[in-house]
Amino acid sequence: MTQGRTHVSQDEDQRETRIVDVPHGREPIPDAPAETVFRLDDVHVYYGKFLALRGVNLDIGKNEITAFIGPSGCGKSTLIRCLNRMNDLIPGAKVEGKIDYHGQDLYGDAVDPVEVRRRIGMVFQKPNPFPKPIYDNIAFGPKVIGMQPKSMDELVEQSLRGAALWDEVKDKLKQNALSLSGGQQQRLCIARAIAVSPDVILMDEPCSALDPVSTGRIEDLMEELKRDYTIVIVTHNMQQAARVSDRTAFFTAEAAEGSGDRTGLLVEYDRTDSIFTSPVDKRTEDYVTGRFG
Asked: Is residue 84 part of a domain?
């Protein structure tokens, strides 16, 4: 099993395992991130006595898009919620091991979870705009945390431009956000996330409820956003992972020894092109070629 920070290649066996096209023409991705934003060391996650995820080791690089893929129940969403301490809000949830964020223990006693969630924003599977005007959706976060921009109007415009939504809504800022289409609502949620100047944007299946056109717009937006932000995305769509991500982590779920419960674990983590064209672990190969299960 290949796990953790060891990035591997498969020189002697060049099996053709490609199931999706990995885009060409992007800048080549180095074997290791130039700068590490998150470092996970032997991370275990429990819900009560249930071990949901065990022994995860990986580094997430600055200004890269990292995709978490794998079957349902393998711990992808559990892990992404650990990165901004959203699991703190779930009774009985417990994280063991260590998650460093820019070298600081994310779960240290002196760390404020609210500040963590400001710096590490989250976009959820289903768009969740507030039932307020579009303008107020963007202005809400900055007001709550006490930001004092020179101009709130400029901040709202900048955030909507950053989410590639300004041209579509600039004449509708007083309109209720719930009147927007699903794709527009999701981009509004992205604009709301970047309005508070985060460092990282987490996306938990952000396109699963969207049509192909809206999905394409979100994917194009992710490519633009990674110039300024580090992005981590959970997706069931392998084609999406291949199109947008720089690195991919494949997770699966296996029965724990002596128990019928299935526990999530990281199988392989590498550059996306390697995961989809020359995976090292057979479980990864079976998943990306459609032979899983």
From this structure: yes
